[in-house]
Every structure is written in structure tokens, then in C-alpha cells.
Amino acid sequence: MPDSPATPPPKIVSLCVSMSKPIKFQGRDLYTGIYKEPVQGRVALRALNLDGDEQADLTVHGGIDKALYAYASEHYAFWREQLPDTKLAWGAFGENLTTERLLESTVCIGDEFRVGTAVIRATQPRLPCYKLAIKIGRSDIIRRFIKSGRSGIYFSVVEEGVIGAGDELIYLRGDEHKVTVREVAELFIRKSQNAEQIERILNSNLAAQMKSFVAAAYRM
DSSP per residue over 113-178, as a string? Predict the structure, then answer.
């Protein structure tokens, strides 16, 4: 996603964090970090997360390849139309960064950006777990979220630093495969018949866990 001289670079609209919190669901006690809230000021971004942020189930959340989750502010208009009775403030989808001009269709796996004093790398789209359904209060949101193609983008941290709302994401470099985040997300919406495309995706800098999901889905 090289910056265009005619278009301002992407930026952070809101920075959101949450420590893991207890909730009850179907009579069970659970912990989740999905209830993100915007914070003011600048926050340290470390290898595994932001200061003040936490993931509860590390088998499917967090880790090196999912240290930071970004969701486009542009998607909120769609969801407010789709879910008119649901309050959707920044952070509603569990994102750390609510952004402008950072879309799945333009960001490629492996793209690196400088944001604040940190450097981050795009690693994969999101496949949400059932806790998004708890948060939004709709059992059908998982299916609708995936089908929408509005997956958001996970990032790893290449260089730790400090970031905050208003910071621009300055494109630094990408890789030769040019696999967009949207291209990977669409593999879980409709079956690709293009073996060359699947091979290219598996050869990219896609996160290892997501590669295993793709390989299993396509028996590679």
C-alpha cells in the first residue's frame, strides 16, 4: 500500500484498550478483552500488545502475529445501517485502532507502516470468535461479519514504540506477493478455484496460524 501523493496517509482516529474482564454467558464464567474503550494520550506499543490491553484466550487471540487489531472507521456506516438498534461507538468491534483510509482492499499482507515511534506489519484478516456475538448481542453477527468482507487487519510489532490517536500510518515497505488482506478474507466467504492464487497466499508473509487455516480449507 504505497502512499499516494494525492491521498493523505491513513491515520488513527481512536486508540482503544481493555484488560480482560469476567462476563457470564449461558451460565458460564468467561473472560474477554473485547470490551475496548477509547483512551486519551499516547500509549506504549509492545511486542504483544498495547499497555493497558489484554487478551483472555491466547489460543485464538493475541500473540506475536495478532498484537494489534485495526478496524476502519469507514465500516461503521455500513454496520450502523445493518444494526440500527445497536450502539456502535469506536472500539465496538474489539479493535485497538479505529482508523481512516486503512482498508482491507488496499493493505497487503507484509505491508509495514511507521506509526508514532513504532513500526507494525500487516499479518492477517480477522476471523471473529463467538465473543463478538456476545459483545454485539446478536447470534448472527459472526456469519454477517465474515460475509461482509469487513474483517479488519491484524498487525505484528516490528519495532516497539509509542502511539496515539491522530498518528498517521506511513507506509514503509511491502513484499513481492502483493496479497491484500481482503483477498485472504474472501477465501472464507467463497471457495477459490485458483490454485495459483492459493499458492501465492501460502507463500506470502501471512501469519502461520492463518496459513494453516487456509491450507486445511483447501487441503494443501
Answer: EEETTEEEEEEEE----HHHHHHHT-TTHHHHHHHHT---EEEEEEE-EEEETT-BEEEEE--TT-
CA 172 – CA 49 distance, rounded (Å): 21
H or E element at residue 15: strand 11-17
CA distance 51 to 45: 6
Whether this prediction's pTM lies above 0.90 is answered by yes
How far is Cα of residue 209 from the mean position of the Cα atoms in its chain?
15
pLDDT along the chain (220 residues), means of 10: 80 97 89 95 97 83 93 98 97 98 98 98 96 94 97 98 98 96 95 91 96 87
Query: How far apart are alpha carbons 192 and 104 in whole angstroms?
Result: 18
In the chain the domains, ranked by start, together with CATH numbers, are: 11-217 (2.40.33.20)
What residues are paired with 25 via a beta bridge?
Answer: 28
Beta bridge partners of 70: 97, 153
